[in-house]
Amino acid sequence: MLAGVMKAGATAPVCEDFPRPAAREGAWVANVLAAAMTRFDMMVAGGQHYFRPPAAPFVVGREAVLRLEDGRRMYGGVHSMVAPWGSMAEQALVDPACLLPVPEGASDTLAAALGNGGLAALLPLSWRAKLRKGERVLVLGTTGTS
After folding, report:
1. Sheet (strand 58-59) strand order
2. What whole-number distance in Å separates Cα of residue 140 and Cα of residue 28?
3. How far is CA 87 from CA 69, 71, 107, in A?
4. pTM score, two decimals?
5. Is the omega angle on the peptide bond into residue 124 within 30 degrees of 0, that is, cis?
6. How far lies 36's CA from each of 23, 26, 46, 109, 129, in Å?
């Protein structure tokens, strides 16, 4: 299958053939419908993040909208991809316990893009500020997807 593959010593992934994943206990094969490439993905792939990359060669990418064998569309985030398969491929190997359903009507590309950026926006408001229903936030400026 075609995939964005990071090889040992490389500074960027290359698009080439990579073995298809096979299901195993605790890991399912899913078809990738849309994948997001974030700064986080680039840092992990380049070994510049505390999330260490898997041993090369590996498929880059940590989040995607996926179609499971039973037809459900799911969002797979950072912890869902099972190495060496990432989201920048036709298929990924995923941990089903880490998947979230994609709401009906949400496009694959929008849902894939909102994962990292959406959490980056949500978590400071919910965990740090402990924002509650009825409270308001003034956003003075933003960058990127957050």
Report:
1. 14-17, 2-6, 58-59
2. 42
3. 16, 18, 17
4. 0.83
5. no
6. 23, 24, 17, 8, 28
Distance CA 76, CA 93 (A): 10
Distances (CA, A) of 123 to 115, 117, 119, 137: 12, 10, 6, 14
- H helices of 35-136, where? 39-45, 108-123
State how far the Cα of 125 lies from the Cα of 122, in Å rounded to an integer: 5
Distances (CA, A) of 82 to 39, 50, 100, 102, 122: 20, 17, 16, 20, 25
89 neighbors 4 (Cβ within 8 angstroms): yes
Per-residue pLDDT tens listing for the chain (146 residues) = 999 999 988 888 999 999 999 999 999 999 999 998 887 778 888 888 777 778 899 999 999 999 999 999 999 988 999 999 999 999 999 999 999 999 999 999 999 988 877 777 778 888 888 999 999 988 887 776 66
